[in-house]
Amino acid sequence: MAELAQLEDPKAREVNERRGDDHGVNLGKLRAVAKRLKTQQELARRLWQTEDTAARLLALLICRPRAFERHELDVMLREARAPKVHDWLVNYVVKKNPHAEELRVAWFADPDPVVASAGWALTTERVTKKPEGLDLAGLLDVIEAEMRDAPDRLQWAMNHCLAQIGIDHAEHRARALGIGERLQVLKDYPTSPGCTSPFAPIWITEMVRRQHDS
Question: What gap in Å lies between CA 23 and CA 9, rounded to an integer?
């Protein structure tokens, strides 16, 4: 914790806090600490218990994803209120855990929109990698009905799912594009030069073009 405190950078904190992340540690430096520590599950658990955002990010880099029980991950997700902690927990840990599918189903239907956004993120992973058994048309129905008025984090996760359905499944592409055009979600999102807009019709069209060009 003392080492993490020494890595605190006021400029990094200012940038991070604009995104809702209450820490001031450069993520490159944090990864360097994790590389030195290597995998240490017990230390990861202790760092998580500090409730400090930088410590929790470090914990997610040095933990053993498959070692967590389902209930532990459920508790951790509900505690993870900083967006970066939430994002890393889902992507670096839950996706590699044997309980990922059970958690996907449970979280997807959760009344807490932040928890539900994790269920959508795991669903998007399946849309791309293992779509068998998913009702893609049904997912589009939910997105069409609920995405426009969903809270920010849930809306973002639904929009990502919409885009991946359009990118990866040609038979649903026209409908995905149509939903994106009608709802206009993230149409005006500021996008850096060289980056693809998260507005689903632009995102889908660009990624499909790249697939055809490659």
Answer: 9
